[in-house]
Amino acid sequence: MSVSIKDVARAAGVSPATVSRALGRGPVSDELRQQVAAAVRATGYKPNLAARRLRSQDSGTIGLIVADIRNPFFTAVSRAVEDSAYRAGMRVILCNTDEDPEREALYLGLMQEERITGLIFAPTRATVDLLPKRSLDFPVVLIDRAGPAGVHDAVVLDNRDAMATLIGHLVERGYREIGGLFGNSSSTGAERREGYIAAMQRHGLTPQFRAVAPSSEAAQKETAAWLAQADRPRAIVVSNSLLLIGVIKAARSLGLIIPRDLAVAGFDNESWTELVEPGMTVIEQPVEEIGRTAMSLLFERLQTPGLPVRKVVLSGRCIVRGSSGAAQ
Amino acid sequence: MSVSIKDVARAAGVSPATVSRALGRGPVSDELRQQVAAAVRATGYKPNLAARRLRSQDSGTIGLIVADIRNPFFTAVSRAVEDSAYRAGMRVILCNTDEDPEREALYLGLMQEERITGLIFAPTRATVDLLPKRSLDFPVVLIDRAGPAGVHDAVVLDNRDAMATLIGHLVERGYREIGGLFGNSSSTGAERREGYIAAMQRHGLTPQFRAVAPSSEAAQKETAAWLAQADRPRAIVVSNSLLLIGVIKAARSLGLIIPRDLAVAGFDNESWTELVEPGMTVIEQPVEEIGRTAMSLLFERLQTPGLPVRKVVLSGRCIVRGSSGAAQ
DNA sequence: ATGATCTATGAAAACGATTTCATAATGGCC
DNA sequence: GGCCATTATGAAATCGTTTTCATAGATCAT
Lengths: 328, 328
Known about the structure:
Chain A is α/β, with parallel strands linked by helices. Chain A has three domains: 5-47, no CATH class; 59-157 and 287-314, 3-Layer(aba) Sandwich (Rossmann fold), CATH 3.40.50.2300; 159-285 and 318-324, Response regulator (Rossmann fold).
């Protein structure tokens, strides 16, 4: 069937060991090296990765488990991770959990069976607490969502700071009844909620917030009910772009004009946020940098396992657009 | 280090062969089966996939190479493929080429080294013609972009029909100077261009079209120059959502109001297309069905290699929104 | 009761690479 | 020229499974 290293060896008139050395690194004379190269070309040899991994006890693979592959934030991070990995001669296994703890457990098990070298992971709140209990034989770097302090390396956005910026901006524009809508499955949603509450209190304002499942439908339903109330907020900050879509739809369904009747601000500078009318005021996350940093943390830990646990906090950038126009 | 099947065998007081049979399928008494299960739990055994793959000569892995992971069309297809695969007990390796033929070649080689069971692939035009030349030892199913007839199974949209629908709709709304903007790297762009030309001629109209690199920036630049001309089109059909963003930006930068000054219609029903003002008239692709069908074709070919080559053509659904409002 | 057919189990081979170990050849140094 | 260090090469062991192959009991029909 498939051509093996023995076939190449025979074709080149050398031993399999020499072929292995010629292809990898090892002392081989130029003459034999060329013979081997010719034999590889002639036979169309492709090394069997399973055999290589088994013998060398090194999968050369890093795992990437994300919560929602449809979320452009995660696809952007994935691309950055993939780039870094392939540049370092490693492969990537990408899995998508849809925020489902059961699938997270399933994929974690799969990663163990693959004997991956390291893992980059955006876990749900449910899993992140159980993670230290599982004895994993590879280092883990959390992205987007941090876990209990000092357990795993992590790279996250400065959520408190981002929320402070958004609230500060809205207050400056004259809003006082500012609501908050957050996803209920991720620690990021929780962190942004904390940041929201702190920022509101710093301004002497009363927080009013709601938490929903991470889907635009859930957000639309909840927001529509909320906005129908007499004491509805005049502005809403939203913890991610999926929920933001729901908020916009809810406002429109009630005939509320943004920002005249309701100001809106959210997270993630997706291309559509500047295309809608009015454009959305958002915190832009440094997605490539997050992916690159996660890979750096992982590589450094692989190289120096004794390193202290590090948490890299990156700052977002506030992009002001029409959705947070001055209050009437 | 890691616990192997021998350790489990020792703990259960049986031979490694029995452990293997108890975990997979094979005749094992209930008593021993339970002992093995207990030993697995006690030792925390995770089978080494590299060893299993090597011995059983079956990677249990299907490859998925897409052109652009940021394109929601491909992420949606990916999810469907992933679901089908894991349901069948297979794993997925996902790679992203960014429409770069060099990376396509790189990843194809990687897939061979992984000894994947089958491949689902959305190739660029450059690669799709070379594909038959490469002797791959696994079946390939093309998605989104078909190759030369009769070589590989494929599942694609009915692009000619979709274009006929869009042009028919615009003509009905009173437009006659209808331009076309297409991506230049995929066969899909080319096919939609053919469909556009055919549909225009059927209506006795003169086609005027342009092809650009698959990025919103390129589309914006090209469209802005186009719309500045005296004989500019009064409507534009656009072959994908990335380009559509560029067209909208170009129109706005010139102060053209959609649809009053320029009607627009495109492909892919992304969530933002109903959020912008006016909403975008688009052809919606049955993304989940595309992914599921690709997996079905692949599985059936694996089961019955002699099957004739099949090309499944799925129909899109036209969603009419404000962007194609009646001509003045 | 006896041979024939199953069934559950273990011993050992096999998958295809890398790596250790041994060895022949080379070169340098006195 | 002889000895030691160095180098290039091959033989063989090894990684952790699955899968033959052999075998000892058990079951069955006669």
